[in-house]
Amino acid sequence: MAALPCEGRSLPPMKDGNHLQIQGDPNWKDHAPGFMIRSLAEVQEAGLEKVADTNTWLSRRYLVGADSFGFSFHHTVLKAGKSTYIHYKNHVEAVLVVEGEGTIELVREGQKEGEGFAKFRLGPGVFYGLGGGQESHFLRASEASDLSVACAFNPPVTGVEDHNKEGVYPVIARDGTKLYSYGEDMVRELFQPPDAFKFGSMGTSGRACPTLPCTLQTLKDSLPVHLRKAVGEDGPALWRLAQTAGLDVNSPYCYNLFCMSFCETVVVAEQQLVPGRAPEVVGYVMGFRPPGRLGTYFVW
């Protein structure tokens, strides 16, 4: 799995989905690189099952910002008889109740539960959306059972977020900073289109472009080359490769900076040169998009 968005660290790797396949081509990923399938056990093993500090709910983050879908997708369970105060100042959220019953009460800031100006019944099949950034509310599960919901977020979460005492999720900037509010200058960074459609459905040359990671067969009988986005740990390997390739070498800090803060625009090529060993970095493209000119790619 890719690193959390440019935080310089990786999530534990997830399986490739083959363990869930019941028939068909074992190399299906080569033909459908954008397809993803995950089990609950994988989400838990990757540390993406978040239990609230209040111990009133847990949230399983099946899809996070690092997956580059343009949104995150969660299965959240509010414990029976419990309520939680939520105020998504930084996100929009779409919610579908899948099991259990409860209520959602809209309140003004500073109001307590029971003092709100509108209250709605929730049950299986009921949908609600929070799209204005100002919908303070209390979510309560019935005494009889947990309230289970499926929800999507934009900007996508990284997987570690929890509400602060004001009910707000932070957004995580590329440098890993938690922001509880942001200005217009951050909108383009936080609200990213899915990787597969950053240049439209026809790509940059009039045809659909593959998404990363992907595997290419460069020459007949040669070893396959695996292309992926950079993660924070790639910096030293890129620096060493530049030295051996006879390129003009920048400082190690430069390569670390690009892999940590511009990971979305650094592509790393790997090959498994020795059977049974980890793949080795054999090439890279390092660059960035100048601010305000997302149609331009500057190769360093």
UniProtKB/TrEMBL annotation:
Q: What class of enzyme is it?
A: lyase
Question: Could you tell me which pathway this protein works in?
Answer: Amine and polyamine biosynthesis; ectoine biosynthesis; L-ectoine from L-aspartate 4-semialdehyde: step 3/3
TM spans, by residue? none
| Superkingdom of the source species | Eukaryota
Can you state which reaction this protein catalyses?
(2S)-4-acetamido-2-aminobutanoate = L-ectoine + H2O
Assigned EC number: 4.2.1.108
The keyword Lyase is annotated on this UniProt entry: yes
Return the protein name.
L-ectoine synthase
Classification lineage: Eukaryota, Sar, Alveolata, Dinophyceae, Suessiales
